[in-house]
Amino acid sequence: MSETISRRSSAVKPAAPDAARTGNLYRLARRRSTTAFLFALPLLAVIGGLIVYPGLYAIYLSMLNKSQTKFIGLGNYAFLFSRDIFWQVVEQSCLFAITAVILKALIGIVTAHLVNNLPSKGQRKWRGMLLIPWVIPLSLSTLGWFWLLDPTYSAFNWLLAGIGGPHIPWLSEPVWARFCTILVNVWFGAPFFLIMYLAALKSVPEQLYEAAAIDGANAWQKLIHITLPMMRNIIAITVLFSLIVTFANYDIVRVLTSGGPRNTTHIFATWAFQLGIASGDIPLGASVSLFMFPILGISAVFILRGVRRRGREI
Amino acid sequence: MARVTLNKVVKKFDQTEAVRGIDLDIADREFVVLVGPSGCGKSTTLRMIAGLEETTAGEIMIGGEIVNDLPPKDRDIAMVFQNYALYPHMTVFENMSFGLRLKKFPKAEIRQRVERAARILDIIELLDRRPRQLSGGQRQRVAMGRAIVRNPKVFLFDEPLSNLDAKLRVQMRTEIKKVHQQVRTTTVYVTHDQVEAMTLADRVVVMNSGRIEQVGTPHELYHSPKTRFVAGFIGSPAMNFLSCRLIDAAGALAVQLGEGLTLPVPAERSAAYRPYAGRALVLGLRPEHITESRSYGTGAEFVLPVDVVEPMGMETMVYVSVDGTEVCARVSPEAALAPGERMRFMADMRHMHLIDPDSERVIEAPGAARVNGAAAVTAA
Amino acid sequence: MSAIAADPPRRRAVGSLRRNRRWALVTSYVFLVLFAIFFLTPPYYQLVTATKSSAEISSQTTDPWLPSPSPTLENIDALWNKTDFPIYLRNTALVTLCVVVITMAIAVPAAFSLGRMKFWGSGILATGVFLTYLVPDSLLFLPLFKVVGNLGLLNSYWALVLVYPTLTVPFCTWIMIGYFQSVPKELDEAALIDGANHLQMLFKIFIPVALPGLIAATIFAFTVCWAAFVYPMAFIYSSDQQVLTAGTITTLVKGDVYQWGMIMTAALIAAAPPLVIYAFLMDYYIAGLTAGATKG
């Protein structure tokens, strides 16, 4: 269905309002427009009232003081910039998101190729199995990971002990804790990349590979010269989408480490939650969460461009 | 050089036999066309030569070397696909040079080869464009250019003109023929269109249900088909087939059809047909050999009511009914009458074929091929 | 050059194509099994833990990777009778049902309007819908916290019913626009000639023809609502209003008393509905996924 992205964004060309000759035609055109507008009204209400308005409201909130009585302009932002922990959160968020997305994309491409190599009957079964992490609600599966990494009862440590390895403090040491958050995110998100890339692989016409085979390409050259270029757009779109979503992720860090140990795994979403809800300083929390916005904006622009380009290529 | 030989080649998909053992010998520089209805195995055969399908049994040799185990890239072949299979993200130049770039040819030579091919195909201005900016005919030319550039031992064409409209098809047919005259590479060409086969081929291979029905020059296939299938497949409109009985009337053989029609058998055929006297056979006669009656009577005249008249401009097709079977006759436009009217026809029995209904084979008669002394209608 | 019969045909020494292909297949399977182990280990482990009693777990005498030699039902019993889990389940089901219905009621007409009925600005609007999907809940939850508070809905699951559509409506609309646009144009025209108005066209023609899309969108909405975590964590603090995800995490995982068997059972039961739907309707699930890009 990736084709549907392209069709939708090179979307409906608005018809010029009917400069009608007869009264009947004019009424008909108007009626259609009105009906169309009415159909879309609830959607506009939801988007306007629950997304656009809160978005703008967040900007306004971020410029208030803690008790929300005074307008302090960029005071909260200045405050954040002066705090070390803020920059730490920025660095951690970027590390988390970029590492996780790169790993997910790699695993996605590799597994997509592996599954594609199978006879088609088996592909469905394997695809079904490999997608399971994505189906389970993230907070609950993270709970499972939490249990797997528990300081006392970790089943992984049990295995390590069995082969004479060390006891690893999975969630209590910063390096390992960060590793685990990335690991869980990759575990959860890679299947999505698998599905998208598998669909993209299948959309490359078989005859191109045959032509390349006749032109003298071996398997590696086919990958580099045919597969990857044809998939370039889908790869870009998927990566950008995932970047957005991974940056904004809350569940994993909250359940696994709650931002610890000593704030070394906090990312924008969890820190904003802590400041805003837990500590009750909503304006400060809002300013933190708004830092996600530029990243979202830039990625969105590139996604749109990529989607339009793919539409034209087909 | 590049002979292509198929030896008892068989291809099975699961349990179905798509190709049931074919033997074929293609000489160097020859243009051979595999033709037949859908599902006859011609594309499968081509793909086995290319190495895109594995042979179940039998041997394929290119240039004297058995290639069964060689992947396509090692067979030194080039292929033009029905859907062109151009790389959409590459320019025309890059498409055509892809194979050479993989083999790390020097840039200067790549450019030279590409430009030479582009000149032959008249696409030299298109080198910087991408496939989506090209028309169907242009894309086909680029696909051919990609093949020419590699200087392979064999060209393989898989129904390359099927996606083009009728007029373009005729144009491209001529292009392909011109290219073959210039480049002189052994070519194996697959099509379901017998007109393409007849106009392009040095030799035509007619296939049906996984087997070769007949191999021959277009002339041979037209004048001396060996089986009923070939007789009915080659030639447009198709040959008329009528059930008949071969009778011996006072020493002279004649063909007895329904409606009281009896047509005489030419004397030179008597010897070959006499063993079949008295039997029920099938008479094959092409529409071009049933015309309006001309002044000299040869005994092969008959009168029948006209069913349908199809004016084609230069000639008119007239359909009549013999014993419930529709027969097509090619007459000159002035002679054609209106439906319902009774018209006088003449059958040129020198071009008759008799088919044994049990074996579906055309009974061999020496007089056949020698009749039309006209020069062979083969591709140069 | 045609000394045919004399030269014996040369055969190049090369491995058979069939053998190479089999090697590739075997390697593929090996790696796939490794990946499958990676992906399926946590759920498997949760299942194994759920069969064990708290005593067994804390004593650490049995292999943690294997199910209990004497599987116990005490976890399910404790979960059902001694915690608020059933309430969470009920709340989640209620909220999900409401939101799915609301979502489809909003998304389907809107998609029809934006996708098939041309009017001024419909193209821009469609792109806009696509973009709002990119605004994450972890950005909106703070202002929405204020909004919900002002509406007096804080600490009530109705707040969730109000707010969840932000998660589902944009993307479901997006999916449906795609499916509606793929309905052949001639059907509109035939319907108009037959005298149908737009509502009739929607219900009698487009919805039936685009039914797979509807199913995919519904499944998507269901899954997202069921798994939502940020909003319940932010808006709800009483157990009787809480939903499964936030409830399991906050109230079941109490400070120092870890009843892991019960917790894992809770997690599994909570994860069951999406898994069951996935098992039976996998193709729709995946169709919804690939119609755009979602979490991950």
Which key phrases capture this entry?
heterotrimer; B: 380 residues; Rossmann fold; OB fold (Dihydrolipoamide Acetyltransferase, E2P); six-stranded mixed beta sheet; six-stranded antiparallel beta sheet; 21 strands; elongated; C: 296 residues; mainly alpha; MetI-like fold; 2 domains; 15 helices; 72% helix; disordered N terminus
What does it look like?
The complex is a heterotrimer of chains A (314), B (380) and C (296). With 314 residues, chain A is an all-alpha fold. Chain A has helices at 2-9, 23-61, 75-82, 84-117, 120-130, 132-135, 138-148, 155-162, 174-202, 206-215, 219-247, 251-256, 268-278, 282-290, 292-313. The longest helix of chain A is centred in the N-terminal third of the chain and has 39 residues, at 23-61. Chain A is flat. Chain B is of the alpha+beta class and 380 residues long. Chain B folds into 2 domains: 4-226, 3-Layer(aba) Sandwich (Rossmann fold); 237-371, Nucleic acid-binding proteins (OB fold (Dihydrolipoamide Acetyltransferase, E2P)), CATH 2.40.50. In chain B, strands 6-7-8-3-9-10 form a 6-stranded mixed sheet, with helices on both faces. A 6-stranded antiparallel sheet of chain B has the order 13-12-11-14-20-21. In chain B, helix 2 (92-102) crosses helix 3 (107-121) and helix 2 packs parallel to helix 4 (136-149). Chain B starts with a strand and ends in a 9-residue tail after the last helix. The longest helix of chain C is centred in the first third of the chain and has 34 residues, at 17-50. Chains in contact: A-B, A-C, B-C. Chains A and C meet through helix 1, helix 2, helix 4, helix 5 and helix 6 of A and helix 1, helix 4, helix 5, helix 6 and helix 8 of C.
